[in-house]
Amino acid sequence: MKSIRVHGFRLGVHTSIAGGISKSVERAVALNANTFQIFSHNPRQWRENRITEEDAERFSILRQKYDIRPAFIHASYLINLASPSDLILKKSIELLSYELTNADTLGAEYVVLHTGSVSGESGRTARSRAANAILKAVCKKRHSSSLLLENTAGEKGDITSSIRTLAEIMEMCSCESMAGICIDTCHAFSYGYDLTSSEGIERLLSEIDKYIGLDKLRLMHLNDSRRPLGSHIDRHEHIGKGFIGIKGFKKILSDKRILRVPLILETPKETEDDDKRNLKRVCEILNSRVKS
Ligand SMILES: [Zn+2]
Ligand SMILES: [Zn+2]
Fold first, then answer.
1. Domain 4-291 belongs to what architecture?
2. Active site amino acids
């Protein structure tokens, strides 16, 4: 496989931290990736062991040695900044702050967040609550890492599925640490952006340009979708095996506005070779594009 490094793209996967956080870099290197994403701790627990100094140092030495950047931390799934419960909101703010602190310790550039969801309340109210929470957890602290908000699939109660809703939060909590957005292709497609067509891709990118700014698009999660367009269900699929398909990814990956952004796969890991296979598929698409 021709290395992705040859062409200057940034491509990687979400890697495991099992056995120590620096192991995640080794796994990225083994896959020939040049960017990656991790959980900084078990994402289904409120808190876990702190990262040791030794492991953090090894993490950054390995990243430097192999030129793996940026590093993204995917924030815990327990965080819900839209929660009307004071207790959940307080714990969510603490946990988000903890994620950014971990990123600072590791020298990771970004934390990626699913902002939250709520039922029985207007989205606007929930988004202003989330923006206030971000002000507390992120903007009022001095972090060297930055926050990215990810678009969601539009499942019941989601408050950040459209570009306009992401923009609404960003406007309410603009600060240096609030760096921008991450677009997940599976989520965008499930929500209703038809990424199999040039018109759908244009719609997504022109909304980002209009409401947020393309310079604030800092990460793409490349995932195919197990569910059809507009299903509002978040089920990731292997690249080319879902409803976006190879044809869709060929269109997505031929857009220069997308190619300048780091690309990270969060595709299913059912067998050991899944990451390799999905990365290979993306590389083949990118290489065919470079040749043509
Ligand atoms: Zn994602
Ligand atoms: Zn997802």
1. Alpha-Beta Barrel (3.20)
2. 44, 74, 77, 114, 150, 184, 187, 221, 234, 236, 266
**Positions in the chain short of pLDDT 70:** 1-7, 48-49, 290-292
Distance 142 CA to ligand 1 centre (A): 26
Strands (E), the chain: 11-14, 35-38, 71-74, 110-113, 146-150, 178-184, 217-222, 224-225, 236-237, 263-265
The span from the first CA to the last CA of the chain, in angstroms, equals: 18
CA of 153 to the centre of ligand 1 (A): 10
- Distance between CA 60 and CA 243 in Å, rounded? 38
Quote the CA–CA distance of 7 and 284 in Å, as a whole number: 12
pTM more than 0.85 = yes
Q: Whose structure tokens read 């950014």?
A: 100
Residue position matching structure tokens 């698009």 = 217
